[in-house]
TrEMBL record:
Residues at which Fe(2+) binds: 217, 298
Organism lineage string: Bacteria, Pseudomonadati, Pseudomonadota, Gammaproteobacteria, Moraxellales
Name of the molecule in the record: Ferrochelatase
EC category: lyase
Primary role: Catalyzes the ferrous insertion into protoporphyrin IX.
Amino acid sequence: MNCVNESCYCRDKSPAPTIERTKVAVILANLGTPTAPTPAAVRSYLREFLSDSRVIEVPRLIWFFILRLLILPSRPKRVAKAYASIWTHESPMRETLLAQVAAVQARVSAAFPALDVQVLPAMSYGEPSLRDAMAHCHQQGIDQWVVLPLFPQYSATSTAPLYDQIARWIPQQRRLPSLQIIRDYHAHPHYIHALTESIKAHWAANGQAEKLLFSFHGIPQPYADKGDPYPEHCRATAAAVVRELGLSDEQWCVSFQSRFGLQEWVKPYTDATLKAWGEQSLASVDVICPAFSADCLETLEEIAVENREFFQQAGGGRYAYIDALNANELHIDMMQALLAPRLAAIESEQSAIPAALLSSRAT
Ligand SMILES: C=CC1=C(C)c2cc3[nH]c(cc4nc(cc5[nH]c(cc1n2)c(C)c5CCC(=O)O)C(CCC(=O)O)=C4C)c(C)c3C=C
Ligand SMILES: [Fe+2]
Ligand SMILES: [Fe+2]
């Protein structure tokens, strides 16, 4: 039957407009790492990282001189040596981020064939940068972004800089994307499950130590006092894992590592805890670092090497570091579980568009 509506689209004989599958960017973002294990590359990484006022809250002018005159002339040489000791052909963090991106890409492409999803790597400091990822999305006309900061526990010192970079980019643009940022996942059941299973797998292969230490990257205590929820998130993660494992209070402990500078950081400190346990002649300890979604300098060197020495030189026995979740299957499952409801919502918005207007739905 012919349509009687004079102004209806179906009377227009021009070709039907075509709408492509919705382009979506999933941005997996981590902290950042130097481009090479050399003093020059580490200096340029530290200059960018430690110039961020989210990370260092010292008044800018004073910090400018401390950074340029005290830190950058000396620290990079020592830190570059530590990086060289863990470097493969690449920084482990960057290598793992790229593996995570490839694995998530395979998963979401399979799960959402009706969408055109590109999974992109990004880092707050260094390469591949979040700025480049945003420029790429803009050039490609990707109007739907889902950003997953790979920091399970939110902190103003780690997660917030990603928000800041996006916020600085926005005023420069005319065409803005729909934007979703997954703030944290410190108690997400898939995250807790992935951690729990990695501990159980470690125990199955190596036996269970007397104590399990959850060592999280620290932040300065004044930041926590001013409202950074990070330490609470860390304790909640550990408590949830312990609940799944059924450990008693004497079998585990939370501590904070990687102190930097002279002020007080959140306690108890990892190095002091391990030295004390060594002095008590503890027979064995397993250490896991749930704040790190990829192994990096702070786990492979500081925890697996340096703190092992602290523990054993003080009189402790067997010491094992349990790897970060990296690109393991359950970690990728977790990322997919975080992304799926967001991608499903985009897909259902797209499916609200009449099928005839979609040019190239994948089969
Ligand atoms: C005040 C200084 C720092 C704060 C606050 C801080 C918070 C913080 N950092 C991470 C994750 C990582 N940090 C890494 C290295 C690193 N961190 C600091 C300082 C602070 N971090 C420095 C100076 C360095 C560089 C190494 C050194 O000079 O000692 C890394 C490793 C990167 C790598 O290339 O392998 C990670 C990861 C989190 C999660 C966090 C707050 C919660
Ligand atoms: Fe019609
Ligand atoms: Fe750090």
